[in-house]
Amino acid sequence: MQNQTTPLILTFGVSDPVGATGIQADLATFAALGCHGLSVLTGMLIGDTARIEDSDEIDADWVVDQARVLLEDMPVAAIKVGALLSVEQASAIAEIVSDYPDVPLVLDPFLSSLPDSGLADDDMLMAIRQILAPQARVMLASQVEIARMAETWREGGSGDMLAADVAELTGIGCEMVLVTGTGASGKGEDATISNTLFDETGAIDSASWPHLAGPFLGAGSTMSAALAAYLARGLEPQAAARAAQEFTHGALAGAQRFGMGKLVPNKFFRAAPGAA
Prior knowledge:
- This protein is of the alpha/beta class.
- α3 packs parallel to α4 and α7 crosses α8.
- The chain starts with 7 loop residues before the first strand and ends in a 23-residue tail after the last helix.
- Strands 3-2-1-4-5-6-7-8-9 form a nine-stranded mixed beta sheet, sandwiched between helices.
- The protein is built from eight helices and nine strands.
- A hairpin with a 2-residue loop joins β8 (about 190-200) and β9 (about 200-210).
- The chain has a domain at about 10-140 and about 215-270: Ribokinase (UDP-N-acetylmuramoyl-L-alanine:D-glutamate ligase), CATH 3.40.1190.20.
């Protein structure tokens, strides 16, 4: 007899030896937010806090086998798809998640620490757009990543194309898109950065946060993992997106420098001595 009360989240992603991004970061974030993570590896990285030196792709059949065994054994409350290293992986994962349409999917396929962030391959971008984005409850991407993806379906364009580019994604089924880095204002201690949440009607929420000095490794991974955790705990997408941003800001404010490179978000900042 099952006696499972902790929400389970299945995450697809790379193994980061630093633990700042990918599977390790997801598991830490899930744990910090009262969830248990199940993990499926899409690749392994060689790197430190400064840079990723190399990556090795996991065969798509292995990705499928990892996921199917877990999903046949345990009920999951949310799924996160992180960095992918091949179109074959994207196709395999899209087929898997299509069997669980009622489970909220968070899509965060770009990893800024990779040399090309997954943005160099048009075939990969098209696969994400055509077979994964339509199944996502929320897709997380920076404004730069959205613009690069849009190059696969439009030519040229002038001015601010963000709303139109996001409309393409929501128009094919992606329920919501959380775009990071949509605005900045102020200087010095008064500087802020903004993130904007879109649905099929357009922008529905925008949040501004005090700018924090970095650079950081794994900020986006932290936010998408927190988003998956809040969805798994039953929050509606808009509330989950706002809560995930708040959590990420706290993790960045408490970030630590483990090595000679970038700062690593502290997913357990709330457990630190003196924390509220």
